[in-house]
Amino acid sequence: MNRSVWQTALYALGYTLILEVLLIAAIEFFPNFEEHIEIFSQMAGVAALKTIMIQLEEGGVVAYVTGQQFFKGCNTLGTAAAILFAVGAVAGEAHRGTLEIWLARPLSRNRILTERFVVGALAVVVPVFLTSATIPYLCDRIGEEVFLKPMMLCSIHQSAMLFAIYGVAFFFSTLGSHPTRIALILLFITTFEFAIYMIEQATYYSIFRWTDIEDFMRICDSGELNPKQLAVMFGIGLVFFAGSLVAFQRRVP
Amino acid sequence: MLPFDVELRAGEVTGLLGPNGSGKSTFLRMLTGLVRPDRGAASVDGARLRGDGTAVRRRCTYMPGETAMYGELSGAAHLAWFLRGRARAARRRATEIADDLGLPLRKRVRAYSHGMKRQLQLAAALGPDVAVRILDEPTEGLDPTKRAEVLALLAEEATAGATVLLSSHHLAEVDRACARLLFLSEGKLIADENTSALSDRARRLVRITWPDGTDAAALAPRLEALGAAEVHSRGAHASALLEGVEPRVFLAAVAQAGDVPTPTALAYGEHSLRDLYRDLYGVEGV
A228 touching B, CB under 8 A? Predict the structure, then answer.
């Protein structure tokens, strides 16, 4: 197997383990959380947090696990992973001076970029599915019932968001030669986006409004995905990937 | 790069020479599709350079000037990585060449010296069975013994019918290995001659030095009148390229000419190609 595939697989394994450990801890904590939910609700200061607490009280264990796994875990760790996996793709090669040997082989640029994109994208989304698949089992251990299908639907929805972020980061990686700088800028922007989710007036400008507990509860309750949201998120990822292919054609080693 | 036309012949090692920044690497990258020219056309072994140059890179091998590699990979894994998209036989041959060069293929590349990395890249470039090999400074960073070994390998390739184009900024190193030399300066092809013709020109070069304060440029027309085909001057020095005139006859004429000051030093017949480039083209650094 290709060296970059091995390397990405290793990073993806680390990211999966962190997500899983966080998930296990969160689910194990659920009985305690449920018992003291009123106290937690009273402690919630900002309006957005109060809304989340109401959703958790009403949604029970499903709201709690989607909040923990998707809204908290994947929106933060998954976003970071999407950015970090993407920025190394081209900018990382340029930064360490290996871009020329990478391009000197008798392989088309479209092929090598597509391979890199697909491997990275899988590394970002597969851990979401893998860890989410363990939710029914983990919940069963604490006497709660959560079904696999809604968790998989939520994983698809979450993956679309991560795919969009990955696509944008990949595009900037194709243009640049400083992966750390690109990663820091994008991480700052996404952290800012996550932070404004909690601000009442600014919350509507947060991209994470599309992957919050309300969205996941809607998917779980209806058993259906939101095709419009999915199309937009996957579309953004694909448009930026197409842009990467165009930019990469003229990339100088 | 400024426009020029050049055709490389099979069975010949062609040296691309020029000082740093003269455009050697850019030209090689353009030939292999790594850098796109604004205009112009190139073809390698019948494949026209189009798009990202994949068709061209299938018909040639390219050894980049960069030595940055994936330190975590072993030499053998690197060869496999370099040769992805090539026939299996290419890997076998590259491994043989690397073994012959004494490279420890099981070791990770991070333990390799600069010269060993260059040799590994060279092994990868010589592995595939292609008609054209394009090598960016293949002898750079090698000790004299390895350098000679590498140049001998390239000469073998040319004898077997391959077209070999290599760049270097050390003329003295490659003039014996190359049958033809292309000389670039500031992106411009300033000389394209076979090595023996260039050596002959170097032998016909006469350098004259006058006392300090003499304006050699003012004497140039007089030297031309005495039989010099080309005169290049700098301060109190002039270099005259003779055409059809024996150096001794020319120097005797200079000594006897009453309107030419008496030289303080004369040199002929011992110039290298390096002197030729410096004196005729005013290019230092090769």
Answer: no
pLDDT digits (tens, 9 = 90+) for B19-40: 888 899 999 999 999 999 888 9
Give the nearest partner residue to B84 out of A97, A105, A108, using CB atoms. A105
Distance (Å) from the alpha carbon of A217 to chain B's nearest alpha carbon: 45
Structure tokens at A94: 């340029």
CB proximity A1 to B under 8 Å: no
Helix (H, G, I), strand (E, B) or coil at B16: strand
Smallest CA-to-CA distance from B182 within B25, B44, B64, B14 is with B14
Residues 6+ apart with CB under 8 A from B81: A2, A3, B70, B73
Contact A104 B62 (CB under 8 A): yes
3-state DSSP call for residue B163? strand
CB contact under 8 Å between B69 and A101, yes or no, is: yes
Q: Are A126 and A12 in contact (CB under 8 A)?
A: yes
Q: Which residues of A74-108 are buried (b: 16+ CB within 10 A; e: fewer)?
A: bbebbbbbbbbbbbbbbbbbbbbebbbbbbbbbbb
CB-based contact, A246 to chain B, within 8 Å? no
Cβ within 8 Å, pair B70-A105: no
8-state DSSP, A69: I
CA distance B264 to B211: 6
Write out the E strands in B152-276.
Answer: 163-168, 180-185, 188-194, 205-209, 228-234, 237-242, 265-268
At B242-273, the pLDDT tens digits run 888 888 888 888 888 888 888 898 888 766 77
Identify the sign of the CA torsion A193, A196, A202, A204: positive
Could you say which of A3, A105, A106 has the minimum Cβ distance to residue B70? A3
Give the residues across from B63 on adjacent strands: B135
User: A 99-128 residues with CB below 8 A of B?
Assistant: 100-101, 103-110
Of B57, B64, B67, the CB nearest to A106: B57
Does this model's pTM top 0.80? My answer is yes
- Of residues A109, A111, A126, the one with CA closest to residue A163: A126
Query: Tokens standing for B140?
Result: 């750079």
A-B contacts at Cβ under 8 angstroms:
62
Contacts of A82 (CB under 8 A, 6+ apart): A124, A162, A163, A165, A166, A169
Asked whether B47 and B120 are in contact (CB, 8 A), the reply is no
Q: Kindly tell me if the per-residue pLDDT of B8 is higher than 90.
A: yes
Contact A241, A166 (CB under 8 A): no
Q: Which residues contact B114 (CB under 8 A, 6 or more apart)?
A: B67, B141
- CA distances (Å), origin B69, targets A110, A180, B113, B218: 22, 19, 12, 55
**What would the two tokens of residue A23 be?**
């998930």
3-state DSSP call for residue B177?
coil
